[in-house]
């Protein structure tokens, strides 16, 4: 956040911030303004540096506090060190860690002063606070699927080490966001959750059961008849109704649980196409998730009388098989299966989408992606793989090439920001989760690093005065950072203790890695293999292995697992939430996961704007 910009403030108590409305404030109906200026060390008023705070009334209504409009000037000065009693104190004050932390505190104080001002009193004696509702023109929700706290920590260290540092001191792009908190991830019926229930909570503001999409807990999973009346409205749908542009991106199949929860209503997350559905559900009129995506515009309009929307502007991900008939004649040029499509109803949904959007662009490979003109493209539909997109480390092996998550994020924003009313975008790194399920820390961490690059790309293309960006995860994994490795020890390596150059050994006499899994398929030594899913062609090998001659930092190494499972499982602990932009300060403390929707809704004023259109 910019630390010296003006803050528009209104006379509403902070505790009632959710009810803020537009209106005039200050004396004589004029708008109160507060300007804050950071003062360097050596300033006349604050010799040790600090902040100058000026307040007044915007008499000429130009949105700027001019010199002749200033009514009060005050200073918040940093305290100086006038004496040092002991050598130990001098050492502390001059220590770089101590100094860096002091600077961080000063930055945090300035951010909070910007958010809430220095609490001047309005004419009626109330506290003047920053307006929140409707401040975010754009909202971007980033979801690292399966990106628990240990994954963030390990990815941070790995990226730092890849850049030549020790790693521990490094920061991922979203680590540097000014506000953060935690989300409790449990589902209504499950202590350890799945992506369908967690993403539905984030998108709708309502917690629900495992395995269902866009519906509340009154649903019975797999029973089509229970969907009607239990549908939830998502933040993306509210943005669409409000007239904003909307987009969904994922490195997983675009019909997979996380992206599907932005646009679909389904009694089962597995109903990705009609061939996945029981006959009774098809006969009852339930529509598969891929069909709901292609028909998103008409389905949304059918729920509200008189509504006219223009549909999703950007959709990019994998999952082409769910949109094509089970017939080889419909194979894409880069199909890897003899019959690419899975649909048993004969429908080619890619053709139906193109018929719906004659001004749209359908793409399936890197060259098509590169050719997209973001200034003239009204609708963009990209399906880059018949199933999930490649892991980032394995992306070069794709048959026809496919874009990275950061490339897709940049392209999406450049299309969506053509709308003067703003946009809503959801970006998922879906394959972090899949790499963990396969027991591959290498792939999980390299996909997390690419995810952080996508966040960085979004930060570069947007203005934090008008764009709320939230970064979080739907759930975590049973992924641990353990042992007592020395500082800078390769995070993918074997544990080497402080003062040693040799791997530490466990009580069984064998070395062990810093990273590991509580359960899963277990040890693999596949060398240069960059596709984590190669593990599924081998029998589980859980338990201890002799790693003495194994390069545990290689892409094809899969960590040991304690409990043998067909696939490593999710975990139930809290996950991080990171935020920047209007309303970001509402992200703090420990929250129910569905709180994320309410922060997006308030900051973007989504429900109110949508209601105004109905």
Automatic annotation (TrEMBL):
PROSITE patterns: PROKAR_LIPOPROTEIN. The keyword Signal applies. Residues 1-18 form the signal peptide. Keywords: Phosphoprotein, Signal. Residues 32-77 form the DUF7151 domain. Coiled coil: none annotated. The keyword Phosphoprotein applies. It comes from the Bacteria. Belongs to the alkaline phosphatase family. This is Alkaline phosphatase.
């Amino acid at each position: 956040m910019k630390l010296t910009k003006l803050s528009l403030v209104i006379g509403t108590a902070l505790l009632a911030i959710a009810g803020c409305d537009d209106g005039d404030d200050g004396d004589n109906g004029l708008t109160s303004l507060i300007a804050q200026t950071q003062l360097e060390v050596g300033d006349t008023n604050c010799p040790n540096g600090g902040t100058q705070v000026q307040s007044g009334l915007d008499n000429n209504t130009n949105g700027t506090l001019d010199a002749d409009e200033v009514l009060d000037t005050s200073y918040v000065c940093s305290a100086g060190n006038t004496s040092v009693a002991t050598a130990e104190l001098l050492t502390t004050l001059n220590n770089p860690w101590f100094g860096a932390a002091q600077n961080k505190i000063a930055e945090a104080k300035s951010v909070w002063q910007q958010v809430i001002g220095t609490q001047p009193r309005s004419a009626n004696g109330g506290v003047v606070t920053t307006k929140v509702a409707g401040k975010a023109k754009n909202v971007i929700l980033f979801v690292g699927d399966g990106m628990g706290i240990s994954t963030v920590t390990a990815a941070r260290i790995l990226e730092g080490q890849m850049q030549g540092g020790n790693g521990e001191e490094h920061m991922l792009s979203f680590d540097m966001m000014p506000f953060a908190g935690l989300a409790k991830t449990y589902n209504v019926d499950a202590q350890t959750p799945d992506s369908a229930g967690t993403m539905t909570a984030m998108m709708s503001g309502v917690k629900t059961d495992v395995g269902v999409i866009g519906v509340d807990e009154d649903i019975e999973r797999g029973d089509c008849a229970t969907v009607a009346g239990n549908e939830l409205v998502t933040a993306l749908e509210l943005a669409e109704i409000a007239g904003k542009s909307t987009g969904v991106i994922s490195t997983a199949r675009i019909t997979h649980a996380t992206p599907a929860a932005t646009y679909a209503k389904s009694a089962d997350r597995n109903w990705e196409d009609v061939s996945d559905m029981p006959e009774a559900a098809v006969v009852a009129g339930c529509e598969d998730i891929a069909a709901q995506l292609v028909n998103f515009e008409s389905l949304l309009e059918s729920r509200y009388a008189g509504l006219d929307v223009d549909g999703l502007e950007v959709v990019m991900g994998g999952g082409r098989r769910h949109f094509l008939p089970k017939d080889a004649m419909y194979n894409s040029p880069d199909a890897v299966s003899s019959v690419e499509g899975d649909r048993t109803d004969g429908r080619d949904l890619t053709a139906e989408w193109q018929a719906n959007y004659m001004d749209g662009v359908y793409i399936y490979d890197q060259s098509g992606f590169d050719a997209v003109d973001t200034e003239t493209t009204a609708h963009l539909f990209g399906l880059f793989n018949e199933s999930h997109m490649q892991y980032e480390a394995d992306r070069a092996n794709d048959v026809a090439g496919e874009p990275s998550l950061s490339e897709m994020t940049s392209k999406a924003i450049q299309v969506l920001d053509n709308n003067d009313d703003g946009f809503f975008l959801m970006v998922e790194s879906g394959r972090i989760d899949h790499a963990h399920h396969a027991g591959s820390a290498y792939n999980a961490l390299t996909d997390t690093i690419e995810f952080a690059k996508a966040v960085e790309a979004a930060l570069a293309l947007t203005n934090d005065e008008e764009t709320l960006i939230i970064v979080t995860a739907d759930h975590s994994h049973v992924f641990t950072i353990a042992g007592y490795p020395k500082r800078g020890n390769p995070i993918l390596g074997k544990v080497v203790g402080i003062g040693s150059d040799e791997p530490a050994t466990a009580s069984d006499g064998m070395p062990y890695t810093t990273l590991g899994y509580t359960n899963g398929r277990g040890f693999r030594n596949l060398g240069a293999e960059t596709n984590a899913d190669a593990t599924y062609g081998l029998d589980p090998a859980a338990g201890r292995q002799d790693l003495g001659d194994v390069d545990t930092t290689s892409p094809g190494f899969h960590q040991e697992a304690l409990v043998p499972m067909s696939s490593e499982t999710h975990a139930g602990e809290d996950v991080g939430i990171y935020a920047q932009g209007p309303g970001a300060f509402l992200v703090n403390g420990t929250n129910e996961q569905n709180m994320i929707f309410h922060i997006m809704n308030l900051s973007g004023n989504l429900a109110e704007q949508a209601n105004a259109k109905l």
